[in-house]
Design a protein that fits this description.
The complex is a heterodimer. Chain A is an alpha+beta fold. Chain A contains 17 helices and 7 strands. Helix content of chain A is 40%, strand content 9%. The relative contact order of chain A is 0.08. By secondary structure, chain B is an alpha/beta fold. Classes of the chains: A alpha+beta, B alpha/beta.
Chain lengths: 394, 301
C-alpha cells in the first residue's frame, strides 16, 4: 500500500544512459477535504525502465506521501493499474520512453483508474467496484454431481476455449475504461463477465444454464455492453473481455435458447433474420421486432406499441423532415433477388451445421506469413498463455 | 481513383442523405464509385454474436465481390461500423489459410472466392491516406472558416488499435481532426469524441444508450462546438435522430447539429446544403448553414 516502498532497487545501474523524465501525477487525498491537483516530478532513469520505477523514485526522493499500489513489478500481480496519458495500463509494464512518446507535451501524465473511487492519489478502491462485481458472478466452479473419485476428464478443446479468460490478472484496467459502466455503474462490467465465461465455458460446471439465465435477465448484464472495444485495448493480458461477453451471448441465445427480458436475444434474432430475408438490414422493421419478437406482427405487440409511443417525438420529426418517408419505413430496401438467394443459401448452410465454427486468434494465432501484416507477434500454435501480452487480443 | 464502394445498410435506409452526399462529393474528388449492389449487410457485430462463421462468410462474399470489380484500387465504405465489423472478419480470414479455404468453400456455389489481402478503407481513411490532405485543401472552394466542429469517430473505426492498424505512424484516430482543419474549420476537443454513442444498446437499455448520446452532445455544447461530424451513420442515428429523446433523458436542451463526413467535405468543396441532404436531419443544421445564402455561418464571404 501507499508509503511502503522506500526502494533501493530503483537505483540506477547504468549511469551512462540515464535520462530525465518528468511525471505529472494526479494527487488526491479525500480525507483532507482538498480538491485533486497535479504535481510534477522529474526523475532520472534509463528509458527502458518502467513508469512504476519512475513513480517509486519520485516517492523515494521527493515525496514519500505519493500513494501507489504495487507488488510484483513484473506485470503479473495486477496491482499497479493506472491511467498513463489517459490510457489504462500497468505502470510496471509501460516503459518510460514509450510513455514519453505518447505524452501530449512530453510530460508523462499518471492518473488513478476510472470508474472506481479514489482512496488516495493513484490508489483506487477495487473492493467497492471491481471485486464486488467479480463476487456477483459466482466466481468459482460449481461441481457436477457426483464428483468423480479421481480427476475430471475434460476434452482439451473446451479447456483451451476458456484459457483466454483465465489470463486475467484482475488489474481492473478494463473496468477503468468501460464506457457502459461510465454511464451505468450497475453494469456487471468486462472483468466480471470475462470471469463468468471462464465457468460458463468449463464443461465441469453444473450450472451453466443458471449462470447464463442470470446474466441475460439482469438489466445490467451481458446485454448492457455496447461493443465499444475499450476493454480489448485496455487489457494488458489479451483477455479481450468484450469477446468473452459475445461468447456468453452466443451461448445464452443459440445454445441455451434463453429469451431475456432486455430484448437482447430478440434483437439479435430479428437482425439476423431480416438480413437473411432482404440481404441488407430493414431498420424500420428491426425496432418493433426487437421488442415484440421476430415476426411481421411484432409491431402490434404491446411492448412494441409502448416503444412506438415513447418514440413518437422522434418519429414525427423524422417524418416532418423527410428523413424517413412512409414508403421507406414500410417497404424494405433490398438487394437483387438472386443475390438475396445466395445470402439465404449461406445462412442455411452454416446454420444447419451440427457444431458452430469459431476461430479464436488468441488460441490459433496467425499463419506465419500473415503475422507481419498485422504487426503482431504470432503466439506459438497450441501454446496459449505464452507471453499473452504479445498475442492477439480477441 | 476507382473504388469498389460499399455504402452499407443504414446509409440507404434511415440516413439516405449519407449515401446521397457521398455520391455528390465523389466526382469532386475524382473518386469513381462502383457500388457493390449485390453485397449483404456486414452484420454490425450482431450477426457475429449470433454465429461468427456466418458473419465471416457474408463479409468474405462482399470482399470477393469487391475483388471482382475491374480496375478498382480498393474497397471503400462510408460507415465506421462496417469498417470495424468487416475488419474483424477480414482479420480472421487473412490470419488462417485453412479457415479461409473453408469459408471460400461455402462461397464456391456462387463462383466467388476471397483472396487474402483486400484493402478496405472508410472514406475518412481514403481522404487522408489516398487523396491526401494537401490535395483536399487545394480543392476547397468554401473554407469552413470559424466553424467550430467537434469530431465524433464512432468506436468501430478507432478500436481495437492493433486490428485497425492505428499507431504513432498511422494515427487514424486523429484523422477527423486533420480533415476538419484541412477544410478550414476549427477542431473542438471535447470529452466524447472517441466514446460510444450508445446506439448498440438502444433496444436493450434505452436510458443508458440515450444518456451516452446526450452526455457527448452536452460536452460538445459546453466546449462551444457549432456542430459535430461523424463517419458513422449508426452514431448519427443516436446523435441526430434520437436527439430529442436524448435531451429528455439528460434533462437539458441540446440542439446540436450532426453532419455526416461527406456532407462536411461537400460543403467545403462548394456544394449546396440542400443537395447534400442537410435539410433532412432531425436537428436542423442552422448553426452550420446560413440558409439564405447557403454560405457557411460566419465564414468570410
Amino acid at each position: 500500500m501507499a508509503g511502503a516502498f522506500p526502494d533501493p532497487n530503483v537505483a540506477v545501474e547504468d549511469k551512462g544512459n540515464v535520462q530525465p523524465f518528468t511525471l505529472r501525477l494526479r494527487r488526491y487525498n479525500p480525507e483532507s477535504g482538498d480538491a485533486p491537483y497535479w504535481e510534477e516530478h522529474t526523475v532520472e532513469l534509463e528509458p527502458h525502465r518502467s513508469v512504476l520505477e519512475g513513480i517509486l523514485q519520485a516517492k523515494a526522493e521527493f515525496d514519500g506521501s505519493i500513494g501507489i499500489r504495487c507488488s510484483c513489478r513484473a506485470a503479473i500481480c495486477g496491482s499497479c493499474g493506472v491511467r498513463i496519458n489517459g490510457q489504462p495500463g500497468l505502470a510496471c509494464h509501460t516503459h518510460l520512453q514509450d510513455a514519453q512518446r505518447s505524452a501530449r507535451d512530453g510530460t508523462i501524465e499518471v492518473e488513478p483508474m476510472g470508474n472506481m473511487p479514489v482512496i488516495k492519489d493513484l490508489i483506487v478502491d477495487m473492493d467497492a467496484v471491481h471485486w464486488s462485481k467479480i463476487q456477483r458472478v459466482t466466481p468459482w466452479l460449481i461441481n457436477k454431481e457426483p464428483i468423480p473419485e479421481r480427476e475430471y476428464v475434460v476434452d482439451r478443446e473446451s479447456m483451451v476455449d476458456v484459457t483466454q479468460s483465465m489470463a486475467c490478472i484482475q488489474c481492473g484496467a478494463c473496468v477503468s475504461d468501460c464506457l457502459s459502466m461510465e454511464i451505468d455503474p450497475l453494469f456487471i462490467g468486462p472483468a466480471a463477465l470475462a470471469k463468468a465465461y471462464r465457468f460458463v465455458g468449463d464443461p465441469r460446471d453444473a450450472q451453466q444454464y443458471e449462470r447464463l439465465n442470470d446474466l441475460s435477465q439482469d438489466p445490467h448484464g451481458i446485454y448492457d455492453c455496447t461493443h465499444c472495444f475499450k476493454c480489448i485495448d485496455a487489457c494488458p493480458k489479451g483477455v479481450a473481455p468484450m469477446s468473452q461477453i459475445m461468447r456468453l451471448r452466443r451461448r445464452a441465445g443459440s445454445d441455451q435458447h434463453i429469451t431475456d427480458r432486455n430484448n437482447g436475444v430478440r434483437h439479435e434474432k430479428a437482425f439476423s433474420s431480416l438480413v437473411r430475408q432482404h440481404g441488407i438490414l430493414h431498420e424500420a422493421e428491426l425496432l418493433p421486432r426487437s421488442y415484440g419478437g421476430d415476426s411481421w406482427f411484432a409491431k402490434f405487440h404491446p411492448a412494441a406499441g409502448l416503444e412506438l409511443l415513447d418514440s413518437l417525438p422522434v418519429i414525427t420529426r423524422a417524418l416532418a423532415r423527410r428523413k424517413v418517408t412512409p414508403k421507406g419505413a414500410l417497404g424494405p430496401h433490398s438487394i437483387p433477388k438472386d443475390a438475396v438467394k445466395s445470402v439465404q443459401r449461406i445462412f442455411d448452410e452454416i446454420e444447419e451445421r451440427d457444431k458452430r465454427l469459431e476461430l479464436n486468434l488468441y488460441i490459433t494465432g496467425y499463419d506465419e506469413d500473415s503475422g507481419e501484416q498485422h504487426g503482431q507477434t504470432a503466439p506459438e500454435e497450441g501454446q496459449p498463455g505464452i507471453e499473452p501480452e504479445e498475442s492477439p487480443a480477441r | 481513383m476507382k473504388v469498389a464502394y460499399w455504402p452499407g445498410c443504414v446509409s440507404r435506409g434511415f440516413t439516405p442523405e449519407l449515401h446521397g452526399s457521398m455520391d455528390k462529393v465523389a466526382p469532386l474528388l475524382d473518386i469513381e464509385l462502383v457500388e457493390l449492389d449485390r453485397a449483404s449487410c456486414c452484420g454490425a457485430g450482431v450477426i457475429a454474436e449470433h454465429n461468427q462463421e456466418l458473419a465471416d462468410t457474408l463479409n468474405a462474399r462482399t470482399f470477393a465481390l469487391a475483388q471482382q470489380v475491374d480496375g478498382a484500387e480498393l474497397m471503400m465504405n462510408i460507415c465506421s461500423t462496417c469498417q470495424g465489423a468487416q475488419t474483424e472478419c477480414q482479420e480472421r480470414l487473412d490470419a488462417n489459410a485453412e479457415y479461409r479455404t473453408h469459408v471460400n468453400g461455402t462461397l464456391a456455389d456462387e463462383g466467388l472466392s476471397y483472396e487474402k489481402g483486400l484493402t478496405n478503407k472508410n472514406f475518412l481513411w481514403l481522404l487522408v491516406e489516398e487523396i491526401g490532405l494537401d490535395e483536399l485543401r487545394s480543392r476547397v472552394r468554401r473554407p469552413l472558416t470559424n466553424l467550430k466542429v467537434g469530431p465524433f469517430y464512432g468506436c468501430y473505426i478507432v478500436r481495437p488499435l492493433d486490428r485497425l492498424g492505428i499507431s504513432a505512424d498511422l494515427p487514424r484516430d486523429t484523422y477527423l481532426a486533420q480533415v476538419i482543419e484541412a477544410l478550414g474549420g476549427t477542431v473542438i476537443e471535447y470529452a466524447g469524441s472517441h466514446k460510444c454513442c450508445g446506439f448498440p444498446i438502444i433496444t436493450m437499455n434505452k436510458e443508458a444508450s440515450l444518456k451516452q448520446a446526450g452526455r457527448h452532445l452536452g460536452d460538445a455544447i459546453d466546449a462551444d462546438a457549432d456542430c459535430l461530424v461523424t463517419p458513422c451513420p449508426l452514431c448519427h442515428l443516436n446523435l441526430d435522430l434520437q436527439q430529442p429523446l436524448a435531451a429528455r433523458t439528460v434533462g437539458r436542451q441540446l440542439g446540436m447539429p450532426v453532419l455526416h463526413l461527406p456532407q462536411l467535405v461537400g460543403l467545403a468543396l462548394g456544394l449546396e446544403p440542400k443537395e447534400l441532404g442537410m435539410s433532412r436531419h432531425v436537428v436542423k443544421p442552422t448553426t452550420v448553414i446560413d440558409w439564405t445564402t447557403s454560405v457557411v455561418a460566419e465564414a468570410a464571404a
